[in-house]
Amino acid sequence: MANERKAVIVGAGLVGALWAVILAKRGYQVDVYERRADFRQAGYVGGRSINLALSERGWKAVEIAGIREKIEAVAIPMPGRMMHGTDGALTYQPYGEEGQAIYSVSRGGLNIELVNIADEFSQVRFHFNQACLGVDLDNSSVRFEDTRTGVQYAIESDLIFGTDGAFSPVRQSLQKLPRFNYSQQYIDYGYKELCIPPNEDETHRMHTNGLHIWPRGQFMLIALPNVDGSFTCTLFLPFEGEASFENLKSEVQVMAFFEKYFPDVIPLMPTLVQDFAENPTSALVTVRCNPWHYHHKILLLGDAAHAIVPFFGQGMNCGFEDCTILDSLMDKYEENWPAIMEEFSANRPEDSNAIADLALLNFIEMRDKVADPKFLLWKKSKSTCTSGSRRSFNRCIQW
Ligand SMILES: Cc1cc2nc3c(=O)[nH]c(=O)nc-3n(C[C@H](O)[C@H](O)[C@H](O)COP(=O)(O)OP(=O)(O)OC[C@H]3O[C@@H](n4cnc5c(N)ncnc54)[C@H](O)[C@@H]3O)c2cc1C
Asked: Cα(14) to centroid of ligand 1, in Å?
């Protein structure tokens, strides 16, 4: 009986893999289709940040999946921000009360762990190298192409989840429908990842348990710790203008820029110039859409439904929260999918739009205000986040 319930998930990223675990725990037969080769063998090429901040919003879903301990073992607690002034001065700002933190996790490590855990269920099947081409809405089927052979085919299902990321082909099919609302907004900033390697004894070169920020008014550098002793750094900078990526083309320009704005980082980044030249400069997009479901058979989750800019550190966490909410709606409506999708799609987009707005606003706080002593004093005196309950902490925690 239990195995008669079937679902197709498009995309084995962070949200798709976690959602497969949750459905499998409930006895669903789950087929997960992923465009990439099996990254457990082929190596993880995410094309996005190497590490991420996991907050309470996300931990709840990890707990429902029953894998908190496994993830905690590879997560580094970051109980506060460590701000770096241009003079090298450090200021520490706790995010919450003692014992509260956000956690730095490896994107690839987390994704692989989630796929491995899902794969332990006999009724979960992963189909790698299968690129979704779109959805045939009339007969509720998903079109795929095997990227190795070029063979195209369709899979019919009464339950299809689009967890195929910000440029979701599942969502693109829904976009052709009348009364489907959709917007995509790029900001004028891009980002580039850089690296602070570990010391020779594999310890971190800066304070381990903190999210490091170099706020510089119109731009910023951040660094999150990795378990191997390194830090993954991300430079957020306008594409054009005086201090911008377009003006950082040569080695001389890059070094002069870092000497002016981030002098304390230079000795920590022995491959700075090489990394700057080789690593891509990527764009940042906000995607909003509504409704998230079609005919109670197709549902969008994660970035496919709500991609946000990373400055609130909440994109994955929100995708995980989608899973938490759906799991509770499955209890509430005894797995009656029309009722679940109606309620989810009626309420959830408003919340995700609010987080998308907060993410855009938090960029201003991070790049600019955290360097302002008056702001830090105000933040310290504010009780909601710093001395509130665990619940308020859950709501407020951010990069
Ligand atoms: C620089 C940066 C830093 C970030 N930091 C944080 C952070 O600290 N905390 C946080 O919570 N979030 C963060 N995010 C956001 C986070 O990366 C995303 O919200 C999260 O990855 C969304 O997960 P997802 O599974 O919905 O989509 P994705 O991770 O994009 O996964 C989508 C999956 O679908 C697959 N796919 C795509 N197209 C197809 C197709 N045609 N057919 C089949 N499969 C397909 C992809 O290969 C991928 O496996 C950050 C983002 C960026 C860019």
From this structure: 7
Contact present, 199 and 267 (Cβ < 8 Å): no
Nearest to 205, CA basis, from 228, 231, 227: 231
Token digits of residue 234 = 């991300």
Contact residues of ligand 1, CB 6 A cut-off = 10-16, 33-36, 48-49, 52-53, 131-132, 163-165, 169, 191, 234, 302-303, 310, 313-317, 319
Amino acid in position 42: A
- Write out pLDDT tens, residues 69-88: 988 988 999 999 999 999 99
Gap from CA of 13 to ligand 1 centroid (Å) = 6
pTM to 2 decimal places: 0.92
Task: Give the torsion through C-alpha atoms of 315, 320, 325, 330, to 10 deg.
Answer: 140
Q: Is 276 exposed, middle or buried (0-12, 13-18, 19+ CB in 10 A)?
A: buried
β-strands 211-215, 220-225: how paired? Answer: antiparallel
Tokens representing 71 are 């993830």
Mean pLDDT of 202-225: 96
DSSP code of residue 388: S
> Which is nearest to 24 in space by CA: 53, 66, 73?
66
Q: How far is CA 341 from CA 174, 254, 322, 329, 390, in A?
A: 15, 50, 12, 9, 29
Give the chain's domains with CATH numbers. Answer: 2-78+105-182+288-371+390-396 (3.50.50.60)
Helix boundaries (H) for 212-313: 251-261, 272-278, 303-306
